[in-house]
């Protein structure tokens, strides 16, 4: 009888571990900015380009809709002086399901009342829709940090029409940010290099050159840290991005971004306080829903 109980217990633990592994896989696949669905958004079959980055478009999947509701609730809590917006590159930094990245976020930004409103796999038009549908309403941040567009770039180089479309989309995001938070200073971050296909680097460089021209140096500032992430050809320095996708920053890569942001934050807000009033960090709803193993028994620290 005791042997049968032990066997049943081992089977139960095995089932829980299998479910936990599946939950981790779903978390990363749901929000990753790879060269699959998200990266192919602006392309028609056969390679024709479809312009739409400046036209708001909602995400229809249930998890993204849950995330939108979650971010609406975060916005209503107030206490936010720095508002980060973007896709998964932004999201992961301040997310509960990436605890090692969240620790770096807290180490850099605690005391400045920073809140993360990024959502994984969003293209510019999806971010634009979220902003136009309540996620910035009534927040009144002092600073908005924006990094977006890599999913519109995708994993394949684009022509001038693609470059202009992405530029127009980001200009539309800047416009809605200024409409909803007219007193905010906006830090427009240059799109980071991606090395899953080096052929996209010229496209990214052209977009970033356009973004630099959108900044007035006063209410909109352009921040480009790419020379700290990669060499002059866009080839990433060792350890800056995840080895698997060559796209999402590691802690080392995020620290480069933080080192570019913090002098601006200090200039505009002063040094960080000893307390922080931003809402608690959020995470991927699917990760929370599918988390079935207590953190005390399984190490959930993953990138």
Summarize the structure.
This protein is an alpha/beta fold. It has a single domain, classed as Rossmann fold (3-Layer(aba) Sandwich), CATH 3.40.50.1110.
What does this protein structure show overall?
The protein has eleven helices and five strands. Helices cover 47% and strands 7% of the residues. Helix 8 (201-214) links the parallel strand 4 (185-189) and strand 5 (220-223). With 303 residues, it is α/β, with parallel strands linked by helices. Strands 2-1-3-4-5 form a five-stranded parallel sheet, with helices on both faces. The termini are far apart. It has helices spanning 2-31, 62-77, 88-93, 99-109, 124-135, 150-153, 160-180, 201-214, 226-229, 251-269, 285-290, and strands at 82-86, 114-116, 143-147, 185-189, 220-223. It has a single domain, classed as SGNH hydrolase (Rossmann fold, 3-Layer(aba) Sandwich).
């Amino acid at each position: 009888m005791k042997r049968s109980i032990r066997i049943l217990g081992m089977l139960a633990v095995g089932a829980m571990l299998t479910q936990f592994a599946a939950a981790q896989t779903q978390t990363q696949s749901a929000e990753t900015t790879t060269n699959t669905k998200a990266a192919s958004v602006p392309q028609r079959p056969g390679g024709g380009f479809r312009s739409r980055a400046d036209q708001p478009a909602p995400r229809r999947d249930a998890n993204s809709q849950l995330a939108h509701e979650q971010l609406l609730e975060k916005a209503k809590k107030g206490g936010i002086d720095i508002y980060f917006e973007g896709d998964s590159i932004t999201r992961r930094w301040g997310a509960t399901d990436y605890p090692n990245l969240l620790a770096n976020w807290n180490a850099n930004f605690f005391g400045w009342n920073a809140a993360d409103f990024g959502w994984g796999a969003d293209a510019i038009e999806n971010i634009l829709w979220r902003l136009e549908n309540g996620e910035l309403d009534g927040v009144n941040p002092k600073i908005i940090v924006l990094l977006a567009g890599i999913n519109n770039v995708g994993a394949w180089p684009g022509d001038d029409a693609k470059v202009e479309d992405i530029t127009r989309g980001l200009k539309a995001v800047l416009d809605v940010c200024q409409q909803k938070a007219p007193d905010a200073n906006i830090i427009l971050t240059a799109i980071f290099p991606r090395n899953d296909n080096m052929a996209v680097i010229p496209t990214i460089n052209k977009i970033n050159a356009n973004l630099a021209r959108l900044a007035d140096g006063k209410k909109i500032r352009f921040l480009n840290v790419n020379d700290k992430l990669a060499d002059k050809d866009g080839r990433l320095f060792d350890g800056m991005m995840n080895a698997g996708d060559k796209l999402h920053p590691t802690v080392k890569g995020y620290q480069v971004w933080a080192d570019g942001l913090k002098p601006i934050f200090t200039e505009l807000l002063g040094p960080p306080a000893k307390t922080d009033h931003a809402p608690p960090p959020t995470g991927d709803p699917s990760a929370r829903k599918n988390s079935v193993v207590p953190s005390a028994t399984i190490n959930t620290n993953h990138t």
